Amino acid sequence: MVKQDIPMRKLGHPLRDRLVQTAIYLVVLCVSGVFLWILLDLIIGGSALLSWRFLTDVPRDAGRAGGIGSILVSTLLILSITLLVALPVGWSTAILLAEFVPAMSPFGRWVRYSLQVLAGVPSIVFGLFGHAFFSIYLGLGFSILSGGLTLACMLLPILVSTAETGLRAIPDSYRLSAAALGMSRAATLLHLLLPLAAPAWAAGLLLGIGRAAAETAALLFTSGYVDRMPESLMDSGRVLALHIYDLSMNVPGGDASAYASALVLILLLLAINIVAMRLTHFWQHKKLHIR
Amino acid sequence: MRGWKQPGWRYAVTSTIAVLVLSGLCTAVMATSHKLVLTGSSTVAPLAAELGRRFESMHPGVRVDVQTGGSSRGINDARKGIADIGMVSRAIKPNEQDLQAFTIALDGVGIIVHASNVVASLTRQQIADIYTGKITNWRDAGGKDARITVVNKAEGRSTLELFLAYFRLKNSDIKPHIIIGDNQQGIKTVAGNPFAIGYVSIGASEYDAQHGVPIKLLPMNEVAASVANVRNGSYPLARPLNLVTRTAPTGLVKQFIDFARTEQVHDLVEAQYFVPASVH
Amino acid sequence: MIWWKHNISFRPAFTDRWLCWLLRAGAITAALIMVLILLFLLLEYWPAFQKISPVRFFTDDAWYPLEDQYNLLPMVTGTLYASSGALLLAIPLGIASALFMAFYAPHFIAVVYRRLIELLAGIPSVVFGFWGLTTLLPIINQWEPPGASLLAAILILTLMILPTLALTSYVALTAVPKEYMQAATVLGLSRWGIIYGVVLPAARKGIVAGGLLAAGRAVGETMAVLMVAGNVVQHADSLLAPIRTLTANIALEMAYAMGDHRAVLFVSGLLLLFLVMALTSLAGLLGKEHHG
C-alpha cells in the first residue's frame, strides 16, 4: 500500500480547504460513531454467550441452546467452494477485459454489461435461480455444493469489477517496458501486473467474502436449513447468516444466540481480512522486491 | 522470484481441488439410502428439526433433513415428490385434497399491543374497525389520545388468512401502516412502538411476554389468549400445524409421522410453544 | 491496450494463446449466467402469461394478488425512491471516507478506519435490519408514527452501501499516478484544489464503477429493507410514509405464493432486472458523455 501524501499548502484557498477538511473529518466521525454504536449493541447483546463451547457445540432447542459448531463448518465449506469457483472465473474475466480485449469491442461490452446487470440482481433471485438450476436441474439437491455455486455466481460482478479497476489503474508504461524486454504476456501478468494490482484485488476479494458470508436469501433455497454437522459436500448445511436470520425472525427467545452468532461472524470476517491483507502484502513484496 | 512455480504450491492446490471433487462425487453416490426430506412452513421447521433429531437418535443410520421456505413450498414439494413430507402451518384447502394431511400440533393467533397500552380488551367489532381504518385513534377504543399503528401480515401468510376469515374481512379492506413477514418481526415491531396493534402466534408472544419483551396479548371474544386456552379448545382463533404427503405414507415416512404424533414428543412440541395435537 | 494482435517479429508465445482462450472461457461463463437467469425468470412467468397480460402490472388498481389485482408500479417507485435516496446520501459520505483514508488521515488512523469499514461490509443485512427495527424505528416513531418508513429504509441502505462505495473509491484514489499530484503541487494548487481538480477526475472511472456496484446492492437489498420499510404497497407521498420495494415483495410473499401469484412474483424479479439494465445503460451513456 503506497501512501500518497499531498503536501499541506497554504496557497490557493485556505478557507475552502479548511472547510472541506472539517467536513471530511465530521463525516468520518459520524460514520465511525454509527458503526461503533451497532458494534457495541452486538457486543452487549452477545458477549455473555460467547465461549469455546458455543463455538464447538451443535445447536440445540432450535438454536436457543447449544452452540454453532456445525454451522461454522458449513459456512466455511460454502465459502471455500464459492471462492474456489468464483476466483478463477472472475479474475480471468477481469484480466481478459482489462488486458486482452479492447474496451469498446462488442465482446468486452457484452460481458461487462451482463456483469453490471448481474451486480443488480437481488440475492433472492439468485436463490431461486440456484434452486431451480443447481439443486433441481443439475440434481445437486439441497447441498453445500449448490449453495457454494449459487454464491459464486453472485460474487462474480464484485470480483471482476474490482480486479479490472485495479489492472486498468496500472500505467501503460509498465506494459511497454515488459513488452520491450520480450516478456510474454503471461509472464508480464504474473510477475508485474498482478503484483501491482494485488491490493485492489484483495479489496475486491474481501468485499466478496463479506458479502458471501453475510448472505441469507440466496442460500435459503440452495444450501438449506439443516443445522447438523455436514458429512460431505452433498449434505445440506445451514450458514451463519441464515442461522442469525432464523433465530431473530422465527425463534422466540433466540435473540441472545442471534447476537452472539453475529459477533462470531464479524470476528471471523476480521480474521479473514487480516490474513488476506498479510498474504497480499507478503506476495506483493516478494514479487516486486519492494523494501 | 519464481516461488509460485515450486512444486509444493501446485501440489497443494491441485490435490485440494481433487480431494474436494472426489469426496463430493463419492458421497453423492453413497448418501441417498435412508434420508427423509421435509420442506415447508418456517413456523413448523424448528419443531420438525427437533423431532428429526430425536428420530435420528432412535433410528441409527437414518437422516432427517428439514428445509424451510413457507407452507406453499411444503405443498408444492410434497406434490412434486421433491420432499418426502411437506410442512404446512394451516388447514388444508379444498384444492389440496389430493394430499394426505397429519396434524402434529396446534397454534393460536392472538392480538398483541405494547405493554404500556392502557386498553385491556377490544371487541370483535372494534378490532375489525381498527383494521379497516374506521377507528384511527386509541381514544376511540378506550385508550390514550394517540394514532394507532396497524400491523398486518403479508399476502399469502396463513395467519393472515385465518385472521381475515375470522373477522370476515377482505385484505383490500385493511388499511395497514406496517406489513410484516414472520412472527418475531411482528413482536419486535409492536415492542418498539407503544401505539401499534398486531396479530401473531400466541405461543411466540406468550414466551416473549414472559421473558420481558414489552408486549401484551388481548383476549379474543372475552377468552384470554393463552396456550392453555388453545389447548382446551375454547380459544376461537387456532390453526393446525400439518405434515402432508402425496400418497398414504409407508415405511420410514409412516414411522416418522406416527412418531411425530405420539406422546413421547409432547415435550418437544411444548418446548416450541405449540400445543400437542392429540391432547385436545 | 498495448500489444494487441500479433507482435511484429514473433509469433505470440504458446502460453499466451493458451491463456487467452482460458480467459475467454471464463468471461463467457460469467456472461452466460446472466442469460441463464433471465431465461429462467421468463420461464417461470410463462404459465401465467396467457392469463395476466404484462400491461396489467401497470394498470391494475392495486396489489392484491389473492383478489386478482397485480399492480407492481408502487413497488417500482418504492425501489427507486429508496435506492436513489440512499445513493444520494452514501456517495458524498463514501467519497469523503475514501479521501480521508487516502489523503487526510495519519497512516495509523487510516488503517484502523479502513478495517472498520471492511468489517461493516461484512455485517449481514439481517443484523442491520435487526438494529434498524429495534433502535432506529422507535426513534423515528416518536417523531412521526409509524416509524417504519422510506426514511428508515434510506438510512439503513446508506449504511449498507457505504462500505462498498468507500472501499472502491479508495482503491480508485490510490491508483491515481503520483506524478499527477506532484505536477499539480508544483503548479501551486491547494490540497482541495488538487483533489477536486486532478485526483477526483482521474479516479472518476473507478468511483463510477463503485457507485454502480453500490446502486446494484441498494436496488437488490432485501432483508434489511423488509424489516424497516413498513412494506405497505403505495406511492410514497412523504419521507415518512411506509413503502414496499420489489425485493421485499418477493421475499415477503414468495414462500407462501402459489400458482399465478408465484408467477407474478417472478415478474417482480424480471422488473428488477430491467430496472438494473436501464440504470446500467444510463450510467454507460453518462460515462461516455463525460469522455467526449
Question: Could you give a short description of this structure?
Answer:
With 280 residues, chain B is of the alpha/beta class. Chain B has ten helices and ten strands.
Write the layout of secondary structure elements.
The complex is a heterotrimer of chains A (291), B (280) and C (292).
Chain A: H1 14-46, H2 52-56, E1 59-60, E2 65-66, H3 69-100, H4 106-120, H5 123-137, H6 144-168, H7 172-180, H8 185-213, H9 217-220, H10 240-250, H11 255-288
Antiparallel strand pairs in A: 1-2
Chain B: H1 7-30, E1 35-40, H2 45-58, E2 63-68, H3 71-80, E3 85-88, E4 100-114, H4 124-132, E5 149-153, H5 158-167, E6 178-180, H6 183-191, E7 196-201, H7 202-210, E8 215-218, H8 227-231, E9 238-245, H9 251-260, H10 266-271, E10 275-276
Parallel strand pairs in B: 1-2, 1-3, 5-6, 5-7
Antiparallel strand pairs in B: 3-9, 4-7, 4-8, 4-9, 4-10
Chain C: H1 14-49, H2 56-59, E1 63-64, E2 69-70, H3 73-104, H4 107-122, H5 125-143, H6 150-174, H7 178-186, H8 191-202, H9 204-220, H10 223-228, H11 246-253, H12 259-291
Antiparallel strand pairs in C: 1-2
Helix pairs in contact in C: 1-12, 3-4, 3-6, 3-9, 4-6, 5-6, 6-9, 7-8, 9-12, 11-12
Features:
heterotrimer, A: 291 residues, mainly alpha, two-stranded antiparallel ribbon, 2 strands, globular, B: 280 residues, alpha/beta, 10-stranded mixed beta sheet, 10 helices, 21% strand, elongated, disordered N terminus
Strand order of the largest sheet of chain C: 1-2
| Radius of gyration of CA atoms of chain A, rounded to a whole number | 22 Å
The secondary-structure class of chain A comes to mainly alpha
What is the β-strand count of chain A? Answer: 2
Radius of gyration of chain C, in angstroms, nearest whole number: 23 Å
Main beta sheet of chain C: 2 strands, antiparallel
Biggest interface between chains: A-C, 117 and 112 residues
